[in-house]
Amino acid sequence: MKPSKSFIGLIIVSSAFIFYASGLYTNLQTDSALEIVDFSIIKDAERSQDIPSNPNRSPFYGDLHVHTKYSFDAYIFGVTNTPYDAYRYATGEGITHPLGYEMKLREPLDFYAVTDHGFYMGMVENYADTSSKISQQEWTKPFHNINRADNITLASGPQRANIFSSVLTQAIIQPYPLWHPKVIQAWLTKNLQLALTSFDYNVHKSAWADVANAAEEFNNPGTFTTFIGYEFTTSTAVEGGNLHRNVIFNSSNAPIRPWTRIDSLNPEDLWTWMDSLRDRGVDSLAIPHNSNGSNGQMFEVETFRGNPIDLAYSEQRMRNEPVVEITQVKGTSDTHPLLSPDDEWADFEIMNKRVGSRPPSYSMPQGGYVRDAYLRGLTLDWNKQGNPYKFGLIGSSDTHTGAGSFDENNYWSKVGILDGTAQGRGSVPLTDERIAQLTQYSAAYNQPPSTQELEGRTYADTGFEQWGASGLAVAWAEENTRDSIFKAFKRKETFATTGTRLAVRFFAGYDMDSIALDSEDMVQEAYAKGVTMGADLFASNNQVPQFLVWAQRDKNGAPLQRVQIIKGWVENGSGTPHEKIYDVACSDGLAVDSLTNRCPDNGARVNINDCSISNDVGAVELKTTWTDPDFDPAIKAFYYVRALENPSCRWSTWDAVKAGETPRPDLHQTIQERAWSSPIWYIPEQSKVEINIL
Amino acid sequence: MNLRILVFFFIGLFIFIIDTGLNSDESSKDIYISDQELSSLLSAWTSQVGRAPTDEEVVNIINNLVQEEILYREALLLGLDQEDRIIKRRLAQKLTFLKQETMPVDPTEQELLDFYESNKAKYFMPPTYSFKHHYFSKESNAIERANNSLNALIDGDMELTGDPFFLGKNFNQNTAAEIERSFGASFLSAFDQPKLNQWSGPHESAFGEHLLFITDTSDGFFPPWNKIAAKVTQDYVTKTQDDAVNLYLNEIKSQYRVIINPNYQF
Q1: CA-CA to A116 of 20 to 30 Å: which in A254, A289, A493, A628?
Q2: Domain count of the fold of chain B
């Protein structure tokens, strides 16, 4: 028995040693992604501090999703606009599209954030620059001089699409051999990308510093707000489930490098990193987008690794992701006709392909739309797993040209050369020359045909016809400063629009009907007596709450048609989800039919030949106090506002009208621009597992 | 007679031989790596990795350098640098940076003040208006209600039947641009010759009719020095750097002649 005893002793001693040694190794590692840099240019103390503040809060319009030349794909799309150009655009200056025309806003924005892909930020420009060290590697050849002035042509579009979809993905995964010092350095600093031959850390860091510097230079408290940010471009390991998120920082302090998909594909690791930064005094939030193209993965009922969602997961997700981008160029993610068959407005700017898939493949709607996510959240909560989907709503553009395209009548879509013309977007028939190009390309790169025949005419079949001129993020904030607007996102007091400057107020409480709708103090009283969008309304002695809605039209857009409240709830016995849509205010003095809960037709029409709209119907503002006729105080529910404008021409119709063509028969010729508020959640008394991020 | 032509021919041949001899590519096949270049490479390696490179690694470093140099020279020989817009731009940028960096970036107070004086307009704060208003929504006979209310106001009757305005009643120190964003462009005419502390109207906005009571206007002003010193300094530095480049450009521009096909169809 003696030998075995000493053998056990040996094992204990040696495992203790290994444990100690490995601990030592861990101490050798530093985490480069947690190194914080102060990017500020002018110290706050030096700034003039006369910032107007509104206790009743004002709506500030902006875009939190903008790519410039530093994004690997934008550069391939011919974009050379810098973050500085992007901010100039947001403040009202005109900047140039890759195809040479001017892009200019009708009205400047209040805030803007350049969010280039963190992954390989700045690298493609470096491959294209034939004087750079990395461009001497053989595989960078297709990138060489890609954006030289004479190479930015329409004819280069197909080739660019191919570089984007295949060359890049093959190139980036070549690591150095294991013995290489860069591999050791990658391990020592927890910075995996250093170990890749196609990566140059200095180029990457200086691109990120330039993004931050541009934000700092243009941030002008009281007038124009910028955020330092980037896109965390991750996806599920199989089936291309897009899990993209934008990360926005609350101050001039930000990490020395963005945390990217090379660090981890798992969004939970991103949140852990954000939590660590928060412990170090840098607050941030992550904003998921294009859930519509996630093949149902964005709002899954299980975690990234396939485990059940638990309270800790729900809390961490809500701590880091208080808002979601419901609408952008690549479609709108409110709901899908298959998910909401009783919603007559569900078929709106539906983009049914997985993001970036080639050839384009179908994206499953379940788990990809926010209304469905809210219901899933309630069901998970009902099942005591917490509610990870209790987020507010914003819109943004996801433009890759530096300039968001929000106007149906002045639309350039988002991927530069590829969709910068009406022909490229598929809204007007192709010329013979373009047909030849596209056919040749499909044959050369073994892709399915990228043209289609409709009523005897040939159109581009690129998927861009499903994209749209959308959207804007709107924050209800006291003042136009980083701090004030960031806090609005955190408390979810936000709404989303499809690019229109429509505005929506939304309150709920038990004493709302005591507030006179024509009182000058209406808003102040509503804040005092209730809660607003993004907040919880707690049960109070089985009382029935009232909701107060107030919408104002865009002064340059179409008038309002109706305001709706969308309700979702789950049955207490079974967790079965339900949704219902109530029209609550109609234009032109019309009354809601209490049987169908719908406004009658107000008679607004669009002339498809010149895109003119009826100018004698519709409302400049709609406001009402509303009570849920089906309210049950024991059932947890959410309520959010959808405000709809009168119909107007879709961008594809504008394109056709301008080209003297008839609009494509298979596309919607008109749309109803709209806004969605963040929900108010009604919380019954017995609930014990409520997630509250504030 | 023809002898003179022959003389010229031989002179030409002579010059040609001398020229090819002097410009022979043979002599440029040496790659000279200076001590300085070597030690800077090795110390860069050491600082990145945290230890000195082994012999094998030194060989690798030098090989990389040599490869890069060979490829570079061969590329030059093939003329790959010619007519490459990226390389042109890069070189132009390098020279621009050089010219910018040669400028002193530490301006004196006097220089800053002079700069400020000559660019004053840029720092001008535009006029602002503080006002309150009564709003009459387009939704119900705005003009009539507005006119009635104006008369009532003039008669001293403060009981008004206006509507609440979405963005509120009181606007403090708004510039013309801000007013346009809140009310639409048509509303600006109400501020053309503002009369203070009296009701006027009705004025039309994108949302209806308004009775307007302007309480204060500021003519626009130049902010005090301490509020803008930092910005002026930043602008001054940028400006001097740009000037340096322009000065340099102007000096040599005259030596260049630009030729464009006059028949080119733009």
Answers
A1: A493
A2: 2
